[in-house]
Amino acid sequence: MPKKLPVTNLKESSIRILSGVSLFTGLTPADYRVALETSEVLRYDDNEVIFSQGEPCDGLYVILAGAVSISTTKDGRINRVKAGGVIGELGLLCHALRTATATSGGAGVILLRVKQTHLNELFKIEPKIYAMIMRNVAETLAQKVIELTPNDD
Length: 153
Fold this sequence. Notes:
This protein has 153 residues and is of the alpha+beta class. The protein is 36% helix and 27% strand. The strands form two sheets. The protein has a five-stranded antiparallel sheet with strand order 1-2-9-4-7. Strands 3-8-5-6 form a four-stranded antiparallel sheet, with no helix packed on it.
């Protein structure tokens, strides 16, 4: 079970990571802090399941420290996503079931969880930040689709 950490415990290095995360492109450090206040910071131990394939999606995760393994039951394919990466964003837009399982890849994995309810709250208090984050999510997903589309050359 993940341990919930107070947002105020985030180190400056974690805040700096956000500046390189596609989800936060176009935001200022002050905007990061507002977004953080409506999110949760979670710490996972080694090999702990973050979410499972087939579960309803309730939000996305930004990896602040450590790495996460992503696998599917269909082909067992495993990807490793490191600090600065974003996982689980597809379900945030289309309220889909999880398409893969995410597992912590070591002790001390720290994730920023942005749930749909967090985004709804952010929309109420800072619609500009909400709009920018949602645009960035859409652009990230579009880029992933392009990368996964076979080239007919």
